[in-house]
């Protein structure tokens, strides 16, 4: 069983967040049955649901897989000498994740296979190792785009603009333009960490930007 990202958790972001346990109950899968835990990037809203209130790992039997670029960025002190204040404030949470999962963490490159039909898809720019997850089966494709569209309405209409928390704003914009063009051209179903709805959809060209259909 593969899990991609763990959401925000309730300890850091409050009781309105942290609904992953309920989602597990709905699927009938238990956290201890997850054997591959894949991380798109180490922002807190993607990792803080992976430990409990006592600081124990929720996915105790899982191999944790993230990109080498992402791991190296967050664990290198020099990257935060003049970083955005939000990134500086989020770094302890990323380091907490690294400490909790320790030697269970495996690092790979941004296009590595995860399992049969499942692979990383390079979406770097938002963070140095930010990736989507591509699923392919019987000629069909689905792409989880993580934080490609952090502010859905604005970044669909004006995909060339940057978001304040993009580490490399120019690269993030180029990545977004290329990915949206690919999704629209190849008619690939997708979703993301901040898609309000429809949650699984296609994207089509609309004027100088894009809109969702589904």
Describe this structure in words.
- It contains seven helices and eleven strands.
- It is an alpha/beta fold and 214 residues long.
- The chain has a domain at 1-108: 4-Layer Sandwich (Metallo-beta-lactamase, Chain A).
- The model has no long low-confidence stretch (mean pLDDT 95).
Q: How are the elements arranged and paired?
A:
Elements: E1 2-4, H1 10-13, H2 20-27, E2 36-38, H3 44-47, E3 63-67, H4 68-75, H5 85-101, E4 105-108, E5 113-115, E6 118-122, E7 131-137, E8 140-144, H6 152-157, H7 169-186, E9 189-191, E10 202-206, E11 209-213
Parallel strand pairs: 1-2, 2-3, 3-4, 8-9
Antiparallel strand pairs: 5-6, 6-7, 7-8, 10-11
What overall geometry do the principal axes of the alpha carbons give? globular
Secondary-structure element series:
EHHEHEHHEEEEEHHEEE
Mean model confidence by pLDDT: 95
Radius of gyration: 17 Å
Fourth-tier CATH superfamily name of the domain at 1-108: Ribonuclease Z/Hydroxyacylglutathione hydrolase-like
Assign the CATH topology of the domain at 1-108.
Metallo-beta-lactamase, Chain A
Distance between the termini: 27 Å
Low-pLDDT stretches? none
Number of DSSP helical runs: 7
Q: Strand arrangement, largest sheet?
A: 5-6-7-8-9
Observed structural traits:
single chain; 214 residues; alpha/beta; Metallo-beta-lactamase, Chain A; 5-stranded mixed beta sheet; 4-stranded parallel beta sheet; 11 strands; 22% strand; globular
Briefly say what this structure is.
The protein is an alpha/beta fold and 214 residues long. The protein is 30% helix and 22% strand. It has a domain at 1-108: Metallo-beta-lactamase, Chain A (4-Layer Sandwich).
């Amino acid at each position: 069983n593969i899990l991609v990202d763990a959401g925000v958790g309730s300890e850091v972001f409050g009781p309105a967040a942290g609904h992953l346990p309920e989602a597990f109950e709905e699927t009938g899968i238990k956290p201890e049955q997850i054997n591959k835990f894949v991380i798109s990037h180490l922002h807190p809203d993607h990792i803080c649901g992976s430990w409990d209130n006592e600081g124990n790992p929720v996915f105790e039997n899982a191999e944790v897989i993230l990109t080498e670029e992402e791991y190296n960025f967050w664990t290198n002190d020099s990257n935060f000498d003049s970083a955005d204040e939000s990134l500086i404030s989020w770094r302890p949470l990323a380091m907490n994740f690294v400490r909790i999962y320790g030697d269970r963490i495996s690092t790979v490159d941004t296009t590595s296979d995860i399992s049969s039909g499942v692979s990383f898809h390079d979406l770097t720019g938002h963070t140095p190792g930010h990736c989507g997850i591509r699923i392919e089966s019987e000629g069909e494709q689905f792409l989880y785009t993580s934080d490609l569209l952090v502010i859905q309405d604005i970044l669909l209409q004006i995909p060339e603009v940057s978001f304040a928390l993009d580490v490399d704003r120019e690269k993030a914009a180029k990545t977004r333009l290329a990915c949206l063009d690919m999704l629209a051209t190849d008619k690939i179903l997708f979703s993301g960490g901040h898609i309000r709805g429809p949650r699984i959809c296609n994207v089509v060209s609309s004027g100088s930007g894009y809109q969702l259909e589904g």
